[in-house]
Amino acid sequence: MNDAPNEPGSEAANATSPLERPDIVARDTFQAELDALRAREKAHTREGDAIAAARRRLPMVEIDPSLPLTGPNGPLTLLDAFEGRRQLIAYYFMWWNGHPAAEQCEGCTHYTTQVGELSYLHCRDVTYATFCQGHSRRASATGTSWGGRCPGIPPNPPSTPC
Q: In the prediction, which pLDDT does 134 show?
């Protein structure tokens, strides 16, 4: 097993540190430290906003619409994943081959299981799909067990009137 820090089962992912109790101080000391922390938090937020704005300004890369994918019914192209809609939201699930569902990325798993009703997106000419690299049958079975959308395949819910 690879001991990458973010991979399930790695020591870093399982490491816990004992909780230490903070010092008990006078209210004015607490307020001074709180004010300093808030200043740092505001700076952090502003920097995060600036990074997000820079990301939105990044140039685009054209992707071949015939890029092959594997869906629930077999091979399809990237263009097919749009399901005839103008836009595609493609969520990339960090899938670790060889690991059971319980050891997949917690953030990706949580996010994917929260995606439910898609009619709001469909009414706005948007398709949502979750993608991953890995064994498509295994990912599909795992996605089904979550009750969520299967990684690596575009969802194909029944049509909902807008």
A: 64
